[in-house]
């Protein structure tokens, strides 16, 4: 069977998904790919007369069940179409199955999954990557509009913006645990946001990308953090060739565990090729036997959150150092300013400093 990549495009209201889909098809078609796009299923039902705001509990339940069943069937149908293509191809889903969980109570979601013979973990595994576009309601409020979606209930007023921001975070949380979840920031220039989407898809398709350094800062936490996603990370480097870095990461949040094997190979002075794959617990334990004897295992607590349209990660290291807190900005363009949160104090900008790369930190024993 052909290895057809299945990618989810998701995010809160007015995030730019519709425009992004057009640009994805245009960009990768020009590179010789056939791109299949799965339409947004909840919108199909809303346009057909169903509403998730209905007071009829039975109608609401049957609608959500129908959406999940239709989403699964449509995705599988498009995957079968892709498998018949002779040219390189991939499938982009306008929202994925886990998005449904952001709109309903956990108990109902568990029941719907059971009726469809699946589980949240199995649903996440259906996709090779999840790209979460941050809602314009968070950091780009002047561009927030309901004109592009007649079924959108989060209006362009203060209460609507608050609802949109809350929904954006719920959708993001629904996908936590996926090994290739990427949050796409808002930017001063929308083309920059689209460019990040194209870059992340290129990574999934294993197309070499320019070498870029994420902005990194040593920080102190001086106030209360907003609602964030907290996880414990164990990171082990494996023996590899000099021009290649192989990392094995286990991420544990709330008792759920995901293991990811990542290879980063420099193919020239300016380009790098990255590949990621999720591995089972048994394979994870087996791969640990290939651990680099010259590098210690890194253990750290990660807190991830969105602040004014930008995505941040705070890593508090425990081993092999225990007095280091690093802040990474994800996807902030070179010409843009970082929206530093007021509850953090920047001690030093260490962007591009190899001393603070994880692979170097692992050498500190």
Considering the chains and any ligands shown, give keywords for the structure.
about 375 residues, alpha+beta, 5-stranded parallel β-sheet, 15 strands, about 30% strand, globular
What report would you give on this structure?
- With 365 residues, the chain is α+β, with helices and mostly antiparallel strands.
- 29% of the residues lie in helices and 29% in strands.
- The model has no long low-confidence stretch (mean pLDDT 89).
- It starts with a strand and ends with a helix.
- The protein has helices at 17-30, 41-47, 57-83, 106-115, 120-125, 158-174, 190-204, 281-287, 358-361; strands at 5-11, 34-38, 89-94, 129-133, 181-184, 209-210, 216-221, 229-238, 244-253, 256-266, 271-279, 298-307, 310-319, 325-330, 344-349.
- The strands form two sheets. A ten-stranded antiparallel sheet has the order 6-11-10-9-8-12-13-14-7-15. Strands 2-3-1-4-5 form a five-stranded parallel sheet, with helices on both faces.
- Helix 3 (57-83) crosses helix 4 (106-115).
- The radius of gyration is 21 Å and the shape is globular.
- It contains nine helices and 15 strands.
Helical content (DSSP H or I, runs of 4+): 25-40%
Beta-strand residue fraction: 25-35%
Class derived from helix and strand content: alpha+beta
Q: Rg from C-alpha positions?
A: 21 Å
**Oligomeric grouping of the chains:** single chain
Q: Mean of the pLDDT scores?
A: 89
The shape, in one word, is globular
Strand tally, please?
15
End-to-end Cα distance, whole Å, is: 46 Å
Main beta sheet, described?
10 strands, antiparallel
- Give the low-confidence spans: none
Count of DSSP-assigned helices: 9
Strand order of the largest sheet: 6-11-10-9-8-12-13-14-7-15
Would you list the SSEs in sequence order as H and E?
A: EHEHHEHHEHEHEEEEEEHEEEEH
